[in-house]
Description:
The complex is a heterodimer. By secondary structure, chain A is α/β, with parallel strands linked by helices. Helix content of chain A is 37%, strand content 14%. Chain A contains 15 helices and eleven strands. Chain A has an eleven-stranded mixed beta sheet with strand order 1-3-2-4-6-5-10-11-9-7-8, sandwiched between helices. In chain A, helix 4 links the parallel strand 2 (74-78) and strand 3. Chain A is globular and about 70 Å long. By secondary structure, chain B is mainly α. Helix content of chain B is 32%, strand content 4%. The interface between A and B is large, with 71 and 57 residues.
Amino acid sequence: MDDNQSILGLVEALKHREISAVQLVQDCFEGIEQLDEKLHCFHETYPHRALQAAESIDGALEAGDEPGPLAGVPIALKDNIVTSFGHTTCSSRILEDFNSPYTSTAAQRLIDAGAIVIGKTNCDEFAMGSSTEHCAFGEVCNPWDLTRVPGGSSGGSAAAVAARLCPGALGSDTGGSIRQPASLCGVVGVKPSYGRVSRFGLVAFGSSLDQIGPLARCVKDAAWLLRIIAGPDRRDSTCADLAVPDYLNGIDQPPENLRIGVPKQYLSDKNEPAVNEAVYSAIELYRDLGAEIVDIDLPLTEYGVATYYVIAPAEASSNLARYDGIRYGRRAPLEPGEDLFDLYAKSRAEGFGPEVKRRIMLGTYVLSAGYYDAYYKRALQVRRLIKQEFDAAFEKCHALLGPTSPAPAFEIGAKADPLSMYLCDVYTANTNIAGICGISIPAGFAKVDGKHLPIGLQIQCKAFDEATMFRIARMFEASTDYHTKRPPGIGDAVMRGV
Amino acid sequence: MAERLSLDEVRHVAKLARLRLTNEELEQYRSQLSAVLEHIAKLNEVDVAGVEPMAHPSDVTNRLDEDVVGESMPVEQLLAIAPAVEGQFLAVPKVLGEETGP
């Protein structure tokens, strides 16, 4: 790829003073100025703050200091990752004016590494959705076709990276919310293993499923970002006490005696034909590169969405109980005679959008007296079986290969029926259910109505084996050029200083 | 197709969830949630006899921290983000001496 525009390329160029951090930040804001009125990736940007940070990084670099492994690199954050500056809204009316009193661990680690936070990106409200249409402040458009969705819920982050508004971004993934928009926008997106990245300061949705992860334009950039944000954190007791490997070390070497598993359920005839063709081509490529292809049977794949849409709403209904109009967030005005119950019920009714209400209702129902065993307990039992199915599969192979999404980007408004939207998660949700890791990488295009729509390839590996996942992803990327393609009209104007 | 949820059930769930919904919303959620529950009923096809529920992917339990005083967030900073305060306290509608729910 045009390596000097990758994060790693920029880090080198900045270090060798071929460009300045100030110039780079200005270029980002110029791109946002030009394109974001149409795309609507950003809810809020921080030009003043970012330029100040860039000046300080430039000063340090000029002085020959080492201001960190991301010194001067502009990064966007999904608007559910809190920072002590600016707002964190989760794209929700209920947090429209919310200023977090603290900064999330992941964002702080980026800042400590010298990255410059340029803004917060729009998402589905509270990360609930697969299209970024459920954003209280307006939907995000796909840079490849403005009439289509960017995927979701991290749609703003994915579209911003695809449109070259910034070289990298963070998202969060509860059932596919990083990988699916990465797939639909033609960028790389990583869902780390559960516990790899601290959730401290990630606004909670489904606490046993949520992970923060990077979106970038190539595998190495994503690996570099993950290494920086990952690792133990005493402020998240579910964050694993495991050292984080240097993912770039050996990333260009294919794993020895590589065995890649292809679950037959992943190549369903319900997928768009272009998606299956892209996956078949990827299988052939890996075979040509010397991998042994292993047939895998994952019969529980089709139960993932049902399991997910019990567990995630159940956890969400508990987590979102905190939005009560009392301690922070929106409070509805009361009429005479109304009491505390009305305060809760009105504030929440005004503050939450339709999809969030729907999931709170669903979660409340499956946890309510008389239904708990039938729905929640059963879903947790199926969850264990899904985990065991993956465990058995990873005895036979290093990684599982398949599509990230059953179809490329759909038209805005096309999935008004909630269940049809939920079924977008069919290949991604099980990754979160089992706690393993997954990556989506650009793997082709579907030609629809004269437009090129990106297709993503998902590679899943066992928990905490991101290093192998990156090496396998890199094999494909090094042999293909899909990740270098730009959406129409996205040219050199952006980051032209590079 | 018979709906899996009655309107009364939806109304009850909305009350449990502390959401004041319009009649239109209640009707809409009744039909949409019924369709989702119909899909979720697929889980009944899976044999789960004797399977231990898995609430969490991580094996970590009760990780203990040193019992030492650490940094706390300043009270003023937290009060500053509250929608209504009185002095050092969060302000709420009167809850004692009257009915607190319908």
